[in-house]
Write a structure and sequence with these properties.
mainly alpha, Growth Hormone, Chain: A
Length: 416
């Protein structure tokens, strides 16, 4: 392990790169969450777009960057460098942020959303690999948990800023106004560039301490345990449509724009508080148990959204949704590092993030069609996407428990 990594435990001993990535994620999520959570309301309320088109936009936004996530991870392995590839991805997302201000059609929104996701596709795998390179296995879960906590704390602050703007501009309005959205977009540009500066100035690449083989662009090299994980994740993610549908469902149940943002703030508060403790717990017990528990919580939340009939229930469900994210998301990323050789971590994170992106397209299209149909067919209604998501989560959790191979009792691990 490189000299930058620490062998002692506890958050105080986490290396500089973990804090640099956390700061970068904090600022970028302030920017992103100010805009992205209101984007489905802008599309539906201002531009009059139906859910099937919103599903296509959201799914395509993630999927278009999927191959970039694989390639950027592989490239960071080949170059034996992570930092500047990640910085370039953050910079691209910051540069395209103003495009949302000028968007007046759903096609322009889709283009801006696509460009933003290209930046995410470039940065995500090298950033995650940088964290994994910087830490020893006994603290891997904690490191990813802290990074997720920074990410989510930024999301919480971003939502609170957006909530303040909406409260001042249109308090009590059920639908989002165009001028309010564009004001929020302008404010989001500042933290986006602070995110770029944080990673550029604070992070440093981890020196390579042993000879690495040239990474191969082949899934087989990542090993059967990792491939098994990806197959199970595909099943789960098929029911994990864009969170845009949760926002639209909340409005469908009677929440106004301020209420929707308050709901999202509760979600991010819970997510932020739980991420680091859940990651640390996964360093002590089998990570799979924590992930399965998170997926079961996801199933409960989606069943709740399918059955909900009042606005107050949405707040409870979104808090529980924060539990799912806090427990499962960072822990799954730590598990990826356990399952693959050190010299293929960039490729593995690229593959993992690409799988999430690729599956998000059919998942979001399915959700939009189930809700409002397509063509002359009017769909099954607002509850349908959530019934489907709950079933996929239960199936994924069951397969995870039955099929993912176990090694050395406490944790899955493939030695490089």
């Amino acid at each position: 392990m490189a000299a930058i990594a620490k062998t002692s435990t506890g958050w105080r001993t986490l290396p500089r790169n973990v804090w640099a990535v956390s700061a970068t994620s904090f600022f970028m999520d302030i920017s992103s969450e100010m805009v992205i959570n209101l984007l489905p309301l802008f599309l539906a309320n201002v531009l009059g777009v139906k859910t099937n088109i919103i599903g296509v936009i959201e799914g395509l936004a993630e999927t278009t960057a999927s191959l970039l996530k694989i390639f950027s991870g592989w490239l960071s392995d080949k170059l034996r460098a992570r930092k500047w590839l990640a910085v370039s991805g953050y910079a691209l997302s910051a540069l395209v942020k103003p495009l949302f201000y000028f968007a007046t059609t759903w096609e322009l929104v889709a283009g801006a959303r696509w460009a933003d996701r290209v930046g995410k596709g470039i940065r995500t795998a090298p950033r995650d690999a940088l964290v994994a390179d910087s830490i020893d296995a006994p603290q891997r879960g904690l490191a990813f948990g802290v990074a997720r906590a920074g990410d989510t704390a930024g999301a919480l602050l971003g939502i609170l800023i957006a909530l303040g703007v909406v409260w001042f501009a249109q308090a009590g309005a059920v639908e989002l106004g165009a001028d309010t959205f564009r004001t929020i977009v302008l404010l989001s540009i500042v933290p986006a560039f602070l995110a770029v500066l944080s990673l550029a100035l604070l992070a440093r690449d981890v020196p390579v301490t042993r000879e690495r083989e040239m990474p191969r662009f082949a899934f087989k090299a990542l090993g059967k345990p990792f491939i098994t994980l990806m197959l199970i994740v595909c099943i789960f993610e098929l029911g994990n449509s864009s969170d845009a549908f949760l926002v639209l469902r909340a409005q469908n149940l009677g929440l106004n724009v301020v209420g929707v943002l308050a709901m999202l703030a509760v979600f991010n508060l819970v997510y932020s508080v739980l991420s680091a403790p859940a990651g640390a717990l996964s360093d002590r017990i089998e990570r799979s148990k924590i992930i399965i528990g998170g997926w079961l919580m996801y199933a409960v939340v989606y069943l709740g959204f399918a059955l909900a009939d009042s606005a107050w229930q949405v707040f409870v469900l979104y808090a529980l949704y924060g539990v799912y994210y806090g427990v499962a998301f960072g822990t799954t990323k730590a598990l990826v590092a356990d399952l693959v050789p050190e010299d293929l971590r960039g490729t593995a994170y690229g593959t993992y993030n690409a799988v999430l992106s690729i599956i998000s397209f059919p998942a979001s299209v399915i959700a939009g069609v189930l809700w409002q149909g397509v063509g002359a067919w009017e769909g099954f209604g607002a509850a349908a996407p959530f019934w489907f998501g709950a079933m996929m989560a239960l199936l994924g959790a069951a397969l995870f428990a039955l099929w993912l191979p176990r090694a050395r009792g406490s944790r899955f691990e493939v030695k490089s």
